[in-house]
Amino acid sequence: MIMKYLRYKKWYKAIKESGLFDTKYYLFTYPDVRKIGLDPIRHYIKFGADEGRNPSKEFDTSYYLEANPDVREIGINPLAHYVLYGKNEGRKAMIKKVIKSLKEDGVKTTAKKIKNKTTKNIKLKKDVTLSCFDEIFKHNNTKDDNYKEYESKKQVDTDIRLIAFYLPQFHPIETNDKAWGKGFTEWTNVTKALPQFSGHYQPRLAGELGYYDLRLIEVQKRQIELAKNYGLHGFCYHYYWFDGKKVMDKPLQQILDNKDLNFPFCINWANENWTKRWDGLDQEVILKQNHTTEDDLAFLEAIKPILTDSRYIKVNGKPLLMIYRPQLFPDIKKSVKRWREHAIKIGLGELYLVLSHAFEHIDPTSIGFDAATEFAPNSFNLKDITSEQEFFNHNYDGHVYDYNSAINYSIAYSEPKYIKFRSLCPSWDNEARKPGKGTTLLNSSPANYSKWLEYLLYYTNKHRKEDEKLIFINAWNEWAEGAYLEPDRKYGYAYLEETYKQVSKFSKKRLYEIESTQKGKKKNDTAVVLHLFYVDMWDEMKSYLKNLDNGFDLYINVNNDASFKMIQQIKKDYPDVVLFSCENRGRDILPFIEMMRYITPLKYKYICKIHTKKSLHRIDGDRWRKHLIASLLGSKERILKAKQMLDSKKVAIIVPRANKLKYSEWKGSNEVFIKSFARKANIKFHEDFDFPAGSMFWFKPEVMDKLIKHIDLKRFHFENSQIDGTKAHAVERIFGLLCLDRNEEIEEI
Questions:
Q1: Number of independent structural domains in the chain
Q2: How far apart are CA 590 and CA 157, in angstroms?
Q3: Average pLDDT, stretch 68-78?
Q4: In a domain, 114, yes or no
């Protein structure tokens, strides 16, 4: 037994010091480990390796044991063996997944075959045939865990209008027949796409609508039914008009000819040359765009029947006309002047002109436009993760970016002096249009899209008024760019489901119920601030609040899944409650700061901060939460004791027992942000201070003054269930720094 212990200890030390064990990867790849709370390295040594689990993306446990049977025979942990002996002996930690799968079946193959993306059947030793990409295609054709079936929804009455860009290139036209071959449509490229690296979702396989033809009006009818059902307001059709010639106009013309297709729409004039390259560069021009004085007037005349349609989208009573690239006009200011004058002359009235920031970022008002719009993910500053991928095609010349970085870029956005509508994309991957040279946003998912949309809905509701509450989604059906809301075989209706889920939070009825509470006045010297992320825990929260004998004012953030019915229940239980709706960015921290900005001027004497903590990464998550809240609000005696402690001039924060930690021992990966905040807030920094773990405590409100004044909310980036290193974790430590600055203490109760 002692010998076994010493072996485990040696393996543990070797693995930990090697840096080859990725703790975050292990915990979030295997959530059961997270739940039991066992040290991940110990779990891997005792159980994980035997179960075929991988300690990181860079080490394949099963491959190492199969390739090195001597390791299995002597019973040594595979990663420990690699660290102690294997690496120096030239043994490989892993092998490309495609090559591995072929070798397992006795296939002799070469890197060249993989590199050339061959899909021809290869002869096996056992007279069995196998396609190089059979395994990948099967995976991409399998329903994801987040797959959703169609569900009929109630219509959402909201001021925020979600408008999805709509591509009409899903039917044959003469121009494309000449340029690309008879019968070419968008599906021609979509169905030929091949995966270029491990985890690359290609090809994209259509769901309910199939590989449709937009000459069939039944298709458009069903598209509209789906869009309306899941909370979209309208479509923005990409409009192609070249020197008097309309192209791909049949789908929009069918809408105009059929008034029963009652769904709002507008147009975006794709006013660049139509070329054989998909990036808009003027090479191999199919149709040339001429921008002349006559062209300006002719274009407006041509679209008059569109803009005067009763379903056409208006802003402040003016038809919304988007121009994709105004910079291509010889003198856009003069063109705008002509449009505005001629629009009035021909009975269109005032126009609401919008330009896109797909390429060049221009102040729209400087050239006579009313507003601009983002065109996600064009021009976004994204994190390049190309080098981290396992490529099947060794000649790959494209780029892979992190979808999460697109969300973070969006969050860090600064509102300009002009109106700029926000935009997002469900995903992005134009591999179908540029084989081997595409651009992919990896890590897109319905859940990540949902969080991005949630943020933009909150942002738009706060920063835009009335008719200008618009968000543009790229796109409804850009299949060759991997940007679509339409159902596919992998996710089903999941993206549409998340769209409905988020936009439902902004129903007029729900927002009114929340905003109507914010007229209350301070009635007590005590306040409770509650972040109700898990709405199913309201009854538990109430059981603790009762110990306050109603001698308190209640502030609750109900951002997550609190339905209209749930909000009404809260108001029934506590008629004087003040409700907020803040996105869950920064977990409970950002909502807390937003509520404190409202509360601070009211000058409370005592405030208790609590939230519905579940800590799913800990096996004792529920027990920890109950300990935290019970320590603070578990009885009238404890509440009285906490207030008495706060009456001391030396005490600023009261935390539950065993939750006052030393910063020097628990810095984690938060130090850079904390020091940056200290400089900004003019706080003299040193490591000798305590902080409240768990983010629940009683406190004197004035201790938060510098936090509210100096914290940069834009730095609360998108989170993905990290257990350390987020801005929320950093602020948890900053609470202690604030006490240090005031020469006050944190005490336990």
A1: 3
A2: 27
A3: 87
A4: no
